[in-house]
Amino acid sequence: MDLTYDADSERFRGELRDFILRHRDLAPKSQGVMGGRATREMLDWQKLLLERGYAARSIPRKYGGHGATPNLIEAIILGEEFARSGVSSGVSGPGVDMLVPTLLEHGSEEQKLRFVGPTLRGELSWCQGYSEPGSGSDLASLQTSGTSDGSDLIVNGQKVWTSSAHLADMMFALVRTEANTKRHVGISYVLIPMDSAGVEVHPLRTMTGASEFNQVYLSDVRVPQTNIVGQRGEGWQIAHTTLKHERQVAGNPTELEATLRSLITLMENETRNGVRAIDQSALRERLLDLQARVLSLKCHAMRLLTCDLRGESPGVAGLVVKLQACELMHQMAALALDAMGDLGILYHGSKYERAEGTWQSEYMTWIGFIIAGGTAQIQKNIIAERGLRLPREPRPEAGG
Ligand SMILES: Cc1cc2nc3c(=O)[nH]c(=O)nc-3n(C[C@H](O)[C@H](O)[C@H](O)COP(=O)(O)OP(=O)(O)OC[C@H]3O[C@@H](n4cnc5c(N)ncnc54)[C@H](O)[C@@H]3O)c2cc1C
């Protein structure tokens, strides 16, 4: 395996580094909007990134992207350099990260022209309407229904755990449009404007005190059938395309390395009874274990990149990244809290808080990501069944 980048790639990296260095003061402090409206600062930053080709680089110009020829190495370098510099890589969230690639693959020309550009520019924000009460891991059991009324669908049902639904302009939702079919057929992938009559958003307050999740009630919501992505009743595969992109959001090795570096710095500075955290054997052993795992995931990412460049399927190797990366991020945050000792339990604005409470919020955030987009247990089932071809567990429809 050749781990070096060629001269063109290094030239691209140099230009990007130079850009980040000269413009970093214009970048918003936070990474972006994980759903919800982008700030003016973020909109301006995103505009600059799109112009320079440092966001949506290979998305065609007619859909609002930069229009460069797709280049996997450049995409990796972009991820590496923004993560390394700690500078925002632009608008992120379910719209840009999940819906846009899904529309590019499955959407009609009209849908691509209408939705991709405004989403990339940060003008249109999205939420994901998949989960329902009783239909999370077993997503195919979803009950939200859509019936035809002329050129419209009339949608009724309830979604839950809908992140940022209270801030979103649109929802990409799974709706059962054909009754009396097998569980995985008859589901449509529908784009629903959140200001439609009959959409009600109720916040859910979590143990952190935040209300990022919502329940969304849909009562006789009228949606044009032109807002169905792909064929009506054939949305299950499209839903999986979105899930694939959701799972790829976690697992950037550069971000893992940056977190590891911050953890090492923290452990070099925190002391307990006069001894640095990094010199305490129990904590140090955990750090070394995590360091080895971060390095192995980095090598793993290079292996996946090699497969991509050769046009080969990575098979089971591609399925382990979300599970590994989310657990690693969570375990690094857990070690940081333990290294801080009593200070590790402080939250929200204490004057003794370290790094503005980032480690505490990361600890909670990554528990969430271990669950979202398919729980760790579901990921293990996928790895076992689709990756390792082990026997499938009994399915409800088979009467097991
Ligand atoms: C931070 C966060 C953000 C989210 N955002 C959204 C969003 O924007 N939109 C959206 O639609 N949903 C969202 N979700 C919901 C998420 O997709 C579901 O929580 C997840 O799919 C699990 O479903 P559930 O909560 O109903 O748990 P359940 O499916 O009821 O699972 C409960 C437990 O049983 C285990 N389990 C279930 N089935 C199996 C099995 N076959 N084998 C082994 N173990 C099993 C699970 O792993 C879990 O531990 C979000 C969740 C989180 C945590």
Descriptive notes:
- The chain has 400 residues and is an alpha+beta fold.
- Helix content is 45%, strand content 14%.
- The chain contains 12 helices and 10 strands.
- It has helices at 7-23, 40-52, 72-85, 94-106, 109-120, 236-249, 253-269, 281-310, 316-319, 321-339, 358-371, 376-387, and strands spanning 126-129, 145-149, 152-159, 170-176, 187-193, 199-204, 213-224, 228-229, 271-272, 275-276.
- The strands form 3 sheets. The chain has a 4-stranded mixed sheet with strand order 1-4-5-8. Strands 2-3-7-6 form a 4-stranded antiparallel sheet, with no helix packed on it. It has a two-stranded antiparallel sheet with strand order 9-10.
- β9 (271-272) and β10 (275-276) form a beta hairpin.
- It is globular and about 75 Å long.
- The protein starts with 6 loop residues before the first helix and ends in a 13-residue tail after the last helix.
- 34% of the residues are buried.
- The model has no long low-confidence stretch (mean pLDDT 92).
- Bound molecules: flavin-adenine dinucleotide (FAD).
- Residues 127-131, 136-137, 161-163, 368, 371-372, 374-375, 377-378, 381 line the site of flavin-adenine dinucleotide (FAD).
